From TrEMBL:
Keywords: Cell inner membrane, Cell membrane, Membrane, Transmembrane, Transmembrane helix, Transport
Region Disordered, annotated ranges: 535-602
Main subcellular localisation: membrane
Name of the protein this chain belongs to: TRAP transporter large permease subunit
InterPro entries, alphabetized: DctM, TRAP_DctM
Purpose: Part of the tripartite ATP-independent periplasmic (TRAP) transport system.
Residue ranges of every copy of the TRAP C4-dicarboxylate transport system permease DctM subunit domain listed in the record: 14-515
Length: 602
């Protein structure tokens, strides 16, 4: 019996710890307690089984392992991006974006749904926090969508799904943690995830379009009296065309002598500032050149877009690291909130408190995972996991599909931080053994975790939306009508089409890895094009001579001695080979000294 337990200690430990997590015990303490408990068992059974490599002095490695978490530069980006997102959320940026984009798409059937999807993508690229995105859009857009007779399930599904974009759109916290656990660059993870994220946003918009064709009564256009900004789309198109023209003009003239990435940054900055400055002048001096719609769109959209470019653009171009990009993003969020006069001491305190709590939450989970990992690796748990996964049928595809199912099920019960810190380090070695690109693997897991946020009955995004959706009939102050409550079943049914889209996206990324692996196309070097030249000091035609010989034609003055004469040391024999037919001089004997006389210093 003891031999059986010792041989199967790894699966017993894994099953017990996962069961405690699913029951609901605190993650960090469960991991640490499970690691220490099974460490004691492992030490006692180490004499029975050679597979267990645990001994008491190994506990002394924990302080150094925990200290290693504290100076991890990659994880420093987590509090920066969290703080940036909370400042922007509390400065009511989501409210301005939803109102403006809703007015822009107002005449279109399903315009508010398009606005929710696009604002969800913008919030994801600036906040990176699912809870903040879902709650902000739910509080602002859900009452408006219900006011104008949107189907409750369709409206809540669009809001919940758009909020989960923060899981996959850079600078997602999931991607930062995933890159750290996989041992890969955060910048590469961002570049690899960008195209799939944009495809997901496009498919969401396509789903809204199809819904408006099949069920037009579910998503009506806004009535004309609610479009307070009026028309003026052609004015907006003219401003965009002028900005593009300024970009290309400055790119090829003023900034032509700069490096490629610097030219892109400065040309885009100049074009953006020109459009924003002209819109502000048009509003302040009431010039009437631009329409109200154009003014509002430019003034509201450009600051968050500029912040996104400041953060992601500098990371993608290699100008800043993700940690530096997060610091710049946090500074930019403070500047934006201050410019809108919405940065108060209360807002700053709330953002700092929430950032500190989330950062401490992440660190404690990571500390618990380190304690768990030391014991699990000491009992060959990593070998057990790797052999189990490598024995799956189907090779690479079978492995990816199985892991997708496992992570999806766990995502219904566990937070993404917990999955990233527990499961990813166990899955990565098997993926690498199969030759799977770890950035590709990380993006697949990121989309999978995004899907798990939508899955009934445990999807976190659905819980966030349920907490702010009306649970009983309520009176709309604008229309004066009594509107019905939003049922939990409607929220669940509304999420189903978006869950199907997410699964199709996972299969698409698995089938076409180039959607992610394009990140390394710029860094690939063809070995056949590499030429290595070894410099020589001697005759190029006579490789058998001295390496310090003189070249055949050194271009020196006639009569100049051959060899490499050291400067300032006249009288020393030249270094090199003798001329053809010339005999090498015999070495001269050292002068004799009379040792009976004192030395002379003349």
């Amino acid at each position: 019996m003891i031999d059986l337990i010792a041989h199967n200690l790894a699966p017993i430990m894994f099953t017990c710890v996962m069961a405690m997590l699913l029951i609901g015990y605190p993650v960090a303490f469960t991991l640490a307690a499970g690691g220490l408990f099974f460490f004691v068992i492992g030490v006692e059974l180490s004499s029975v089984s050679s597979e267990i490599r645990l001994f008491w002095p190994l506990l002394q490695s924990h302080p150094e392992r925990i200290y290693g978490i504290m100076y991890n530069d990659t994880l420093l980006a987590v509090p920066f991006f969290t703080f940036m997102g909370l400042i922007l959320e509390r400065s009511r940026m989501a409210e301005d974006l939803l109102d403006t984009i809703g007015q822009l798409f107002g005449p279109v059937r399903g315009g508010l749904a398009y606005a929710v999807v696009l604002v969800g993508a913008l919030l994801a690229a600036t906040t990176g926090v699912v809870a903040a995105s879902v709650i902000a859009m739910g509080l602002i857009s859900l009452p408006i969508m219900m006011r104008y007779n949107y189907n409750s399930g369709f409206a809540t599904g669009a809001i919940a799904a758009s909020g989960t974009l923060a899981q996959i759109v850079p600078p997602s916290l999931v991607l930062i943690v995933m890159a750290d656990q996989l041992g890969r660059s955060v910048g590469d993870m961002y570049v690899g995830a960008l195209l799939p994220a944009l495809i997901i946003v496009g498919i969401y918009c396509l789903l809204v379009f199809v819904t408006t064709l099949v069920r037009p009564q579910w998503a009506p256009a806004l009535p004309p009296e609610t479009r307070t900004l009026g028309g003026g789309v052609w004015s907006l198109i003219a401003v965009l065309a002028a900005a593009v023209a300024i970009y290309f003009a400055t790119y090829h003239t003023i900034f032509a002598d700069m490096r490629e990435e610097v030219r892109v940054v400065w040309a885009a900055t100049t074009a953006t500032l020109a459009a924003l400055t002209f819109s502000l002048l048009n509003r302040h001096f009431k010039l009437g050149i631009l329409s109200r719609l154009t003014e509002q769109v430019v003034i509201v959209l450009i600051p968050p877009l500029a912040l996104i470019f400041l953060v992601l653009g500098t990371i993608f171009l290699g100008i800043a690291t993700p940690t530096e990009g997060g610091a710049m993003g946090a500074t930019g969020a403070l500047v934006m909130a201050l410019a809108k006069r919405r940065l108060t001491l209360t807002v700053l305190k709330q953002a700092l408190d929430a950032t500190t709590k989330l950062s401490a939450f992440v660190m404690f989970i990571l500390i618990g995972a380190r304690v768990f990992g030391l014991t699990f690796y000491g009992i060959n748990g990593n070998v057990w996991i790797e052999e189990l996964l490598l024995s799956l049928p189907g090779g690479e595809t079978g492995f990816l599909i199985t892991v997708t199912i496992i992570v999806f099920i766990l995502g219904c019960f566990l937070d993404f931080f917990e999955i990233a810190f527990i499961m990813v380090p166990l899955l990565a070695p098997a993926a690498e053994t199969l030759g799977i690109d770890l950035i590709w693997f990380g993006v697949i897991l990121g989309i999978n975790l995004q899907t798990s946020f939508l899955t009934p009955p445990f999807g976190f995004s659905l819980f966030y939306l349920r907490s702010i959706a009306p649970m009983k009939a309520w009176k709309d102050e604008v229309s004066g009508r009594l509107l019905p409550a939003v049922k939990t079943g409607e929220i669940y049914r509304g999420a189903v089409p978006f869950i199907i889209v997410q699964f199709l996206m996972i299969l698409l990324v698995i089938a076409f890895p180039g959607l992610v692996t394009h990140y390394k196309s710029e860094n690939v070097v063809d070995p056949s094009e590499v030429e290595i030249t070894i410099p020589t000091f001697g005759d190029q035609d006579d490789l058998g001579g001295s390496p310090f010989g003189t070249p055949a034609d050194n271009g020196g003055d006639e009569g100049e001695e051959n060899g490499m004469q050291l400067p300032g040391l006249e009288g020393l024999p030249p270094i090199g080979t003798p001329e053809d037919g010339e005999e090498a001089p015999a070495p001269s004997a050292p002068p004799a000294h009379d040792l009976s006389q004192p030395p002379s210093f003349d």
